[in-house]
Every structure is written in structure tokens, then in C-alpha cells.
Design brief:
The complex is a heterodimer of chains A (352) and B (669). With 352 residues, chain A is mainly beta. Chain A is built from two helices and 28 strands. Classes of the chains: A mainly beta (352), B mainly beta (669).
Chain lengths: 352, 669
């Protein structure tokens, strides 16, 4: 019961500080259930076959392309991010330059925000305190600030090269400037003063950022790929940096021998990282401590705190329908279900 | 020799050649000079003259003698179409499966369900497939100045080498064959800012002739279309789809003596166009692409005697493609790319009649190609050395029955070198063809062929950075083909039937797929493709030549087989299962009218989720009126393309224009 309470507390904290997850719709008896799993499938670039898959963990039923099935039109080209917030799902559709807002009870599209000035929206973060969304623009080196009440784009923030992940925490917005491995900076934007507070240096290719329940930031850097035409240039290794809110001094926590791409935090205090070798478990308590938990080739990962299970996506050959595998935190296979083409992001909906 | 010096040297040679051609010193003869048919005529069973095709056997033979089916798009079809590029014509004519990335984008063609890089494209018999990607962008080959296009179906690597797995598209330019000088101006205007201006003139005699052709075509192509990616269903205007094509070509012939002649062509084309990319909602790309191509070859014909002909054909090809997208920055720099490829080489062959029943052609090719491109490793070169022998043997030939065998064999050695490695491919290909007249009726033949073909990996496959795979093997195919051709008098005209069935099995198909996690795509020898289908042609021409009706239908099933596929197989994308094309033409004087409806069946999309592009039905209408203005022979034309205003796509999310009107005027002196 205590563990359930801690989990519920983390979920609630996540909502308050980042708005990444929707508030549990019911906490009548303090017990939450996983009522739905959303899988965002990128589809193939230029083909407009991105999709949203819904998986019911109780009945194990899967609807591969629920958005098109309900709305009668495709979700778009390369949906890259989705957040659940205030009863709505916000889906960032990268190559269609838009954000779809859906009711995640019915999956009906309630609104569509088209990005007309800066395109290639990539990742989103929400500040619940100000009801504001922040969207990075992958090829325009900008972040748009979105009023979620009116669903309009306001100011845009110039940032570094090819911004990918971003995270709003209290009055700060952290933007990872990946440069596809050629940049290594994090833009720190103060949302209350509307100024850039500073630019931090981390490893090459900062791409993903998550916050733990203590407000500590964990930044995944893919590393630099090196000069493709020079086989002897292996680039720089991938890494994870730790960043405290108070001092804004990035601290290299671990370096990888194989390239990391995705990251998720587990309830056991470990980071679960997709690398070229498989799924690595990285301790947040002990520096430079990692273990190859599940060897294989995977694409995305998300930890469900309630069931304490890993949801790992497999893009297979990137043209066939993908799969989502469910593992325990100990690396034991629990189950799987089918998804769309290139399943990427996984989100959980809690209720009772 | 440094790359740039190499280019300049050869361009200088070419310019010198053009200059001397202009003075008539080298003005020469076309490869289709009737005298070059004399060795073939020596073989008794060749009933010359009649419609001659050059693609099926590498020598000039009647279409009724070909061991493989050949579709001919002739001068009349080309003139009345009003189309501006070979890619546009092949789409509207239906002679090949055409993939066009929008109205102004990349256009490729293939036959029998195989891919564009498995289809060899020739200009006047000279290979023009890019060594970089194995394909030819037919949107950069202007149609003006083209006399004829032959689409030869079936594998033919034993004749032409790599890439001839599905078939061959031979584009034949218009060479002055008459004895009078001429001049022509051709202008047009039309929908979406379409404009064209072409001029052509030539001087000729029995000894020499040359023609200069120049032109420019441009359009905004800012048509509107519907898209399923627009939530409220509003129409969308296509942006950045404009194009400007400029081109110049010279074709000529010159006869040294009675028995010696040269024919030559040089073609320059420049295409500056937008590259808006697929429309999937959102902001349309502002990317641009500029292509510059030079293609030239000289054919020296020496009729050694009444039975033997020597041909030597040096060639030079230059291609530069520049792509720029200022809207995308990666690591702080814009997404730009540039590639320059050059090919120099040539072929020689000697063909003739060993006796009254056996024709033999033997020779070789030498080709050297190099590339300088942003995404290709340094120092990439390819040297091809080949030798071949081709025979046409009438094993039985009488008034009642004829059986002709067409065996051919070819050996190719391709040596690829780069700063990283050296690769050598040795390939032996063969074909055994048959054409027979089984009954004492000249207009009924049966034909069949079986052969082994190959396609070498191209520069992108081997050396692309990142992802190129130098361990690739060539693709191989076994092709089987059988068919018939029949003509019968029907209702004051002649009706012709032509039918074929085919089966092509391709192994070690090269497929690009992403790496395990880095998403870097890389080519591998992946799976096996089986293409099975049939083709039917029925045409009727009235005896007075006024009416022509034709019906063309093709059916093909093309699947890739691989053990890891959930169902074990997967349809190849963008291959229509069915194609149907009608041509109804009245060729009167002064009015010439034709309408060409065509139906293209559904086409599967990439992936295994069963998605497909829907079938569509469209039609083009052509009306031409001829009249005289003083000394000028004039033709006013109206072309209505896509008269049903069909919204369709040949490649997903690349919309094609709706109904378009084009008005043209041609003045000939």
C-alpha cells in the first residue's frame, strides 16, 4: 500500500511539475489501475502513415490505428511526441507541421494547431502552472510557446541546433540542442522573465530529458557519429548527464560504449536506456553503474510505474508493423502486442 | 587525370565536334541508315522493308521477327501528345509503368513490375542509366526532337549488360533523313503558367545532314488539390512545383563514301525546378533541384561488304545534380548536396550474315565512370569491360514455315575502385530466343525466350556515406517469356493482336533498410522477387490510314519473398496490378483527333499493412488542325490532359495536376 502511495505521489508530482502525464482520473481508494496504453507510431517519412495504437492491458485488445478509425483521416506524417494532459492528448506530428488535440476518452480530434511559421515540431513539454505548452522545432532551431487555452502560438524562443527533447520545470524550460550529434548544449529559458538564463554544455547530441521525483534532470546524449567518410573517426561516445535545479552544473553521470537513444525512469530508481546493444539498466544512485538487462534491437522504452513493467518498442524492419514487448524490471518477458509502423513513444493512462 | 580537367577536356572535344559538324565536315549519318540493313537483308527470310525495331536483338530487324515483344511509340504519337518530357509521355501513353514524383519531379519508368534501376534506358542504343543510382530521370529528357521510343520487354542483359532485367526503353532521336533543309518553330501556352518555345532547323543532302534543336519549357504548376491530411477538407495549392527546362541538341549524319558513314548526337539539358516533396500537411518544402545533363555519342558505320557491317560508337555522358534545401538545418548548416558523374567509353561490333540463314553480331564495350558527390566516398571509379556474341539463325526457312533462334551470350567484368576498396564483378549472361512462323501465313508468329540477367550494385549502394555496403552482390534474374503476334484483315482494315506471358525471378535483390538502432539505412542483398503477368495488345488500323484504335492491357503480380516477412511475402510497392490503355485516333486532313483513356489499378504502398493507392481513370484529348500559311506548313493543336479532372497520385502524397489545357502552334518550313 505504501508503494502504491509512492507511485501515486510520483505520478501526481509529474503532473504538477511537468504536465507530462494526465492526472489520474480517480484515486478514490488510493489505488490506481493502468487502464490504457498509448503507442505513438512514427510511420515512414513522407508517407503519412503515422498512427496511434491503443492497448487495453486488461482485455489485451489492440486497436492499431485508432486516430484514423475514429476521425476518418490519417494522423499525419511522423508523429514524434504525445502528452496526456487535462483529459486531452496532445500529439506532435513532425512532418505534417501540426499538433493534434484529441479527447482520449473518445479519440476524437477536438482541435488541430498548424504551425505556419516554423515547421518540424518535434517534442513537447507542458507547464501545468501556466497552462502553456512548449514545442521544439527540429530544423528551425526554435521553440514555440503555445497557449493551451486558446491553442495559439505566441512567442518563439531561438535555441541551439536541432532542438530535440525539452522539459518545463517550475519557471525553467530546458531545451536540448542536439545538432544531430554536432551540438552539445542545453538552453535554459526562464519562463517567468522570458529570457534565456544560460546555455549549458553537456555531451554531444543531447536528445532526451527526464526528471525524477526529486526534480533531478537526467539528460541522454547520443554522442557524435563522427565523419562518415572516415572509418577511423568513431565520433564521441554517448552519455547521461545529471543536472540539479539549484546549481545548473551538468555532471556526466555515465558514458556508454554503445550508442544510447532513449531513456525512461523506473520506480526502482534506475534509468532504463535503449542502446545499440539492448536495454541497459543504469543506477541513479551509483555513478558509472550499468547492466545490459535485455540484449536486442529496440527503438523506444517507457516504464509503467504501477505494474513495474518495461514497455519496449521494436520497429523491426522499419516498414512492417512493429511490436511492443512487455518485460519485468528484472528483464523477464511478460507479454507483447502489435503496434503500427515504427512504434516510438508509449504513454500510460491510469484510472480505476 | 584530375576530375575537372577530365571534364573540361572532353567538353572541349565535344564543342570542337559541334563546330566541325556545323561546317559539314562531320555531318553524318544516322545509325538507321538503310544501308546498314544490308547485312540483315542478305538473310533471305527477312522481309524488308517493314517496321524495323532495333532494341530486341541489338541489330535492326522487323518487328515481326523479334523474339521479345516491343511497343513502339512513333513520331505521330509523340507529335500529337504535346507532352514535354519522355517521362510525361510514357505516363500518358502507358507503354511502361511510370513513377512520377509530382508533375515536375523525378520520373522513372519500368516494365514488367520491376524497378526503374532494373530497366535499361538507351538513347540511340547508348546506355544512359546513371552509375550513381542506376536509374534515369526521364523528366530531364525533353521530348522535342525525339522521333521514336521502343519499349522492349523482357530480360536482355546478354545484349546490353547490367540493369536490363525487366526490359529496355530505347529513345531514338530525330535525325534528318531527307534531302531538303527545313526549319520549324513550335510554341505553346497552357494551364498553370505553362509555356513552351522550341525551334528546330537543319541542313541536309544525300551526303550529310544535321539538325539543331533547342527549346525551353516552363510552368508554375501551382494547381490545387485535395489532401486527406487537411482536417477541414479545404483545397490546397501546390507550391514550389515550378520548373524551367532548357535544352539544346544536335543530331547529324555524314557519309564518307558509299560504304562509310557516321551518325552522332549531342544532347544538353538543364532543369531548374522546385522540389516540394510529399504533401502530408503543413509547410511545403522550398527545396530546389538543378540538373544538368550532357549525352553524346558518335556511331561510325563501315559496310565492309554486302554481308558485314562494322560499327564503332564512342560515347560521353555528364550529369550534375544539385539539391538545396535552405529550410532544413542540420548542425547549423543547410541541407545541400551535389553530385557529378561522368561516363566515357564506347562499343564496337561487327555484324553480318555468315550465310543465307545465319546472322552473327559480336563485339564489346568499354566504359569508365567516375563520380564526385558529397555523400559518396572519394575516388570512386568503375571500369566495365564486356564482350558479347549474338546470333539469329533460321534453322528452318521456307514459304510455309520458319523457325529462327536467337541465342546470345555476354560476359561483363565490372571493376569498382574507391579510396577504401576494390570490387570486381564477373558476370556471364545469356538468352535463348525463338521466333517462328508455324503456318504458311506471314502475319502470325510465335515467340519465346529464356535468359539470365543481372544488375550490378550502383555507386550509392556501394559507397553512400553513411550506409553504403561494399559487400553487396549483383542482382540476378531468370526470365521466361512466351507470346504471339497476329494480323488479320478486318472490316476495311487490319487488326493486330499481340500477347505475352512472362515470369521473372530476381534473386539477391538490393534493398535499403535501417540499421538496428542508429536508423542509418544500408543496402543488403535481401530477398527474392517474382514477377508474373501478361500483356495484351489489340489494334485496328483502317486501310486508308484514317482510323486507328488500340487497346493495351497488362496484368502483373509482383511479390518479394523473405522468410522474415510475417506472411512470407510482400507486394512490391507502386506496381499497378492492372493497366489498361485505349487509343482512339482519327488522322484526317486537316483535322487529327485522338483520345487516350487509361486506367491504372490500385498499387500497394511500402510496408506490409495492406495500404494502397487507389485505382484511377483519366484520359487525354488531342486535337490538331493542319493548314498552310504562305510557305509554312502549320499545325494548331489543343491538348486536354486529365480531362476527367481526376485527383490521383503516382507516388503517395505527390499530387498530380487536375485538368490542364495546352494550346500549341507548329510552323514548319
Amino acid at each position: 500500500m505504501k508503494r502504491v502511495f509512492v507511485i501515486a505521489l510520483f505520478v501526481s508530482i509529474s503532473v504538477i511539475i511537468s504536465g507530462c502525464l494526465d492526472s489520474p482520473s480517480s484515486t478514490n481508494d488510493g489505488v490506481l489501475d493502468l487502464t490504457g496504453v498509448f503507442v505513438l507510431n512514427e510511420g515512414n517519412f513522407g508517407q503519412g502513415n503515422g498512427s496511434l495504437t491503443v492497448y487495453d492491458p486488461e482485455s489485451q485488445e489492440v486497436v492499431i490505428n485508432v486516430f484514423e478509425q475514429v476521425n476518418g483521416r490519417p494522423l499525419g506524417d511522423v508523429p514524434n511526441d504525445m502528452l496526456l494532459y487535462n483529459g486531452k492528448g496532445y500529439i506532435i506530428v513532425n512532418n505534417s507541421d501540426r499538433m493534434e488535440v484529441i479527447d482520449f476518452g473518445t479519440y476524437q480530434s477536438t482541435n488541430t494547431l498548424e504551425f505556419l511559421q516554423y515547421g518540424s515540431p518535434y517534442r513537447m513539454s507542458i507547464s501545468a502552472a501556466t497552462n502553456t505548452g512548449f514545442v521544439s522545432h527540429l530544423y528551425d532551431n526554435r521553440v514555440s510557446i503555445i497557449d493551451l487555452s486558446s491553442l495559439t502560438v505566441g512567442q518563439t524562443i531561438p535555441v541551439g541546433n536541432n532542438p530535440m527533447g525539452l522539459h518545463a520545470l517550475l519557471e525553467r524550460l530546458y531545451v536540448l540542442n542536439s545538432g544531430f550529434g554536432n551540438d552539445s548544449t542545453v538552453t535554459v529559458y526562464n519562463t517567468s522573465t522570458a529570457t534565456v538564463e544560460g546555455t549549458l554544455t553537456v555531451g554531444h547530441g543531447p536528445a532526451e530529458i527526464i526528471a525524477d521525483p526529486n526534480g533531478v534532470m537526467w539528460i541522454l546524449c547520443t554522442g557524435q557519429y563522427g565523419d562518415w567518410s572516415d572509418p577511423s573517426d568513431e565520433g564521441t561516445p554517448g552519455s547521461i548527464y545529471r543536472l540539479f535545479y539549484a546549481d545548473l552544473i551538468p555532471d556526466r553521470w555515465i558514458e556508454f560504449s554503445s550508442r544510447p537513444t532513449r531513456i525512461s525512469l523506473g520506480p526502482d530508481g534506475n534509468l532504463y536506456v535503449v542502446t545499440e546493444e539492448g536495454i541497459h539498466k543504469v543506477s541513479t544512485a551509483s555513478r558509472n553503474t550499468s547492466q545490459l538487462l535485455i540484449p536486442g534491437s529496440f527503438y523506444g522504452i517507457q516504464v509503467d510505474w504501477l505494474s513495474e513493467e518495461l514497455y519496449i518498442t521494436d520497429a523491426r524492419d522499419f516498414t512492417s508493423q512493429g511490436h511492443v514487448y512487455i518485460y519485468s524490471l528484472a528483464g523477464q518477458s511478460v507479454g507483447s502486442f502489435a503496434a503500427g509502423i515504427i512504434p516510438s513513444r508509449v504513454l500510460f493512462l491510469y484510472g480505476n | 587525370m584530375p576530375f575537372r580537367q577530365f571534364s573540361i577536356l572532353h567538353i572541349t572535344i565535344l564543342l570542337s565536334f559541334i563546330f566541325t559538324a556545323g561546317t559539314g565536315l562531320h555531318a553524318g549519318n544516322d545509325p538507321v541508315l538503310p544501308d546498314t540493313l544490308r547485312p540483315a537483308a542478305y538473310v533471305l527470310s527477312y522481309a524488308l522493308p517493314e517496321e524495323i525495331v532495333v532494341t530486341g536483338t541489338r541489330t535492326r530487324i522487323p518487328i515481326w521477327r523479334s523474339p521479345a515483344p516491343v511497343t513502339v511509340i512513333d513520331d505521330d504519337d509523340i507529335r500529337r501528345s504535346g507532352d514535354i518530357t519522355v517521362g510525361e509521355l510514357l505516363e500518358s501513353n502507358g507503354a511502361a509503368i511510370t513513377r512520377r514524383y509530382g508533375s515536375s519531379g523525378l520520373a522513372t519508368a519500368s516494365v514488367r513490375g520491376l524497378s526503374a534501376d532494373q530497366t535499361l534506358v538507351l538513347i540511340n542504343g547508348v546506355r544512359v542509366n546513371s552509375p550513381q543510382n542506376g536509374m534515369v530521370d526521364l523528366s530531364t529528357i525533353p521530348l522535342y526532337g525525339i522521333k521514336r521510343i521502343e519499349v522492349n520487354r523482357g530480360g536482355a542483359s546478354s545484349l546490353y549488360g547490367s540493369s536490363a532485367l525487366g526490359g529496355i526503353i530505347n529513345i531514338i532521336t530525330e535525325v534528318p533523313e531527307d534531302t531538303e533543309s527545313f526549319a520549324e518553330i513550335y510554341a505553346g501556352t497552357g494551364s498553370y503558367g505553362f509555356r513552351r518555345l522550341n525551334i528546330r532547323g537543319g541542313i541536309q543532302s544525300k551526303i550529310y545532314g544535321f539538325a539543331v534543336t533547342a527549346g525551353t519549357e516552363r510552368a508554375q504548376d501551382d494547381f490545387t488539390f485535395t489532401s486527406r491530411f487537411v482536417p477541414d477538407g479545404r483545397m490546397v495549392k501546390r507550391l514550389n512545383a515550378d520548373y524551367t527546362y532548357n535544352h539544346l541538341s544536335i543530331d547529324g549524319r555524314y557519309r564518307f563514301r558509299e560504304e562509310r558513314s557516321v551518325g552522332y548526337f549531342i544532347r544538353y539539358s538543364h532543369a531548374d525546378r522546385g522540389a516540394p516533396g510529399p504533401y502530408v500537411g503543413g509547410i511545403q518544402s522550398g527545396a530546389r533541384q538543378v540538373d544538368t545533363h550532357i549525352q553524346t555519342a558518335i556511331t561510325y558505320n563501315d559496310l565492309l561488304n554486302d554481308r558485314w557491317l562494322l560499327r564503332i560508337t564512342p560515347k560521353y555522358m555528364y550529369s550534375k545534380i544539385e539539391y538545396s534545401d535552405t529550410g532544413i538545418q542540420i548542425g547549423g548548416t543547410h541541407l545541400d548536396s551535389r553530385s557529378v558523374t561522368e561516363q566515357i567509353g564506347g562499343s564496337f561490333d561487327i555484324s553480318g550474315a555468315l550465310n543465307r540463314s545465319l546472322m552473327l553480331t559480336t563485339g564489346g564495350e568499354l566504359s569508365y565512370a567516375q563520380i564526385d558527390a558529397d555523400n559518396i566516398v572519394d575516388g570512386v571509379r568503375r571500369l566495365d569491360l564486356t564482350t558479347f556474341v549474338i546470333a539469329a539463325w533460321d534453322i528452318i526457312s521456307s514459304d510455309h514455315t520458319r523457325i529462327t533462334l536467337y541465342p546470345s551470350m555476354r560476359y561483363d567484368r565490372l571493376r569498382n575502385t574507391s579510396a577504401l576498396s576494390e570490387l570486381v564483378y564477373d558476370q556471364l549472361t545469356w538468352r535463348f530466343g525463338l521466333n517462328t512462323k508455324p503456318f504458311p501465313y506471314d502475319r502470325f508468329i510465335l515467340r519465346a525466350s529464356v535468359g539470365r540477367n543481372f544488375k550490378a550494385p550502383n555507386f550509392n549502394d556501394l559507397y553512400w556515406v553513411p550506409g553504403g555496403n561494399p559487400d553487396l552482390k549483383p542482382e540476378h534474374s531468370d526470365s521466361y517469356d512466351a507470346g504471339f503476334r497476329l494480323s488479320v484483315p478486318v472490316f476495311r482494315g487490319v487488326m493486330t493482336f499481340d500477347g505475352s506471358v512472362f515470369y521473372i525471378q530476381t534473386r539477391d535483390r538490393i534493398v535499403w533498410q535501417p540499421g538496428s538502432i542508429s536508423s542509418i539505412w544500408s543496402p543488403v542483398n535481401f530477398d527474392e522477387v517474382r514477377s508474373f503477368g501478361m500483356e495484351v495488345y489489340t489494334g485496328w488500323s483502317s486501310d486508308n490510314g484514317l482510323y486507328n484504335l488500340s487497346f493495351t492491357y497488362s496484368l502483373q503480380d509482383v511479390y518479394a519473398y523473405y522468410s522474415d516477412y510475417p506472411t512470407g511475402k510482400r507486394p512490391l510497392p507502386y506496381i499497378p496490378r492492372e493497366n489498361l490503355h485505349l487509343n482512339l485516333a482519327f488522322t484526317g486532313n486537316p483535322v487529327d483527333v485522338s483520345i487516350q483513356p487509361r486506367y491504372t489499378g490500385f498499387r500497394y504502398l511500402p510496408g506490409d499493412d495492406g495500404r494502397y493507392l487507389p485505382a484511377y481513370l483519366t484520359a487525354d484529348l488531342h486535337i490538331n488542325i493542319t493548314f498552310r500559311i504562305f510557305m509554312l506548313y502549320s499545325t494548331a493543336g489543343l491538348q486536354v490532359k486529365n480531362i476527367f479532372d481526376e485527383q490521383y497520385e503516382l507516388i503517395q502524397n505527390y499530387p498530380m495536376p487536375g485538368r490542364q489545357f495546352r494550346a500549341t502552334i507548329r510552323l514548319e518550313y
